TrEMBL record:
Keyword Transmembrane attached: yes
Gene3D superfamilies membership: VKOR domain (1.20.1440.130)
Keywords, ordered alphabetically: Disulfide bond, Membrane, Oxidoreductase, Quinone, Redox-active center, Transmembrane, Transmembrane helix
Protein's membrane topology: Multi-pass membrane protein
Source species taxonomy: Bacteria, Bacillati, Actinomycetota, Actinomycetes, Micrococcales
Subcellular location: Membrane
Protein's name according to its UniProt entry: Membrane protein
Family label: Belongs to the VKOR family.
InterPro entries: VKOR, VKOR_Actinobacteria, VKOR_sf
Domain Vitamin K epoxide reductase: 17-158
Length: 203
């Protein structure tokens, strides 16, 4: 049965720990800086097709090659715009959390949806860069590295604060092993890069 507006206002609000706000602030700030650097390179390429991006290091490490791929504009516009808009919004959310503002459950679920989309999209972009495009973008990798802990920590926090319903077992696993998940994902990505591009950083 639908809730009366007065009942909606009395629904419990959730206050998360400052640790989540700090994690979100740091990872979002890193992602925002990398996205702005990518935007600068993208604009330079628009202005001069012969421009060599600052991260064109060798045939395997090249922002220019990645930007020229169709995957760089998956939704019909440069993916960079998603980061330029999304990460500042995440910073705003982080500040709200650090201010200890009680927030409704839908707010936390919205945050969860955003970081889940970012994580899934980064996983897809990683697979495309490594196994399809055949080139790595250093700034993109910084974004990937920021989104992984952002997703894991937000998910762990939402399980802990009850925004995501979970049993005692899942709560304990997420509370105790979240950092292992981050390390494992980093290791998988690193291993794929080493296997696919053994000479990427040596020329």
């Amino acid at each position: 049965m639908a809730l009366h507006p007065a009942d909606q206002r009395t629904q419990p609000r959730i206050t998360s720990s400052p640790a989540l706000g700090l994690w979100l602030l740091v990872t979002a700030a890193i992602g925002a800086v990398a996205s702005l650097l990518l935007m600068r390179e993208r604009i330079a390429l628009w202005q001069d097709a012969d421009y060599t991006t600052a991260c064109d290091i060798n045939p395997w490490v090249s922002c220019g090659l990645v930007m020229d791929s169709w995957q760089a504009s998956t939704f019909g516009f440069p993916n960079i715009f998603l980061g330029v808009v999304g990460f500042p919004l995440a910073i705003l959310v982080a500040v709200t959390i650090l201010a200890r503002v009680p927030l409704p459950r839908w707010y936390w679920l919205g945050l969860q949806a955003g970081v889940t989309f970012a994580f899934g999209f980064c996983i897809w972009l990683w697979s495309q860069a490594v196994y399809s495009i055949g080139a790595l973008c250093p700034y993109c990798m910084v974004v990937w590295a920021a989104v992984v802990p952002m997703f894991i920590v937000v998910t762990k926090s939402n399980i802990a604060n009850g925004a995501i319903p979970a049993g005692p077992g899942l709560r304990k696993i997420s509370a105790d092993w979240w950092w292992v998940a981050i390390v494992l994902i980093y290791l998988v990505v690193l291993a794929s890069i080493i296997v696919q591009f053994p000479n990427a950083f040596t020329g």
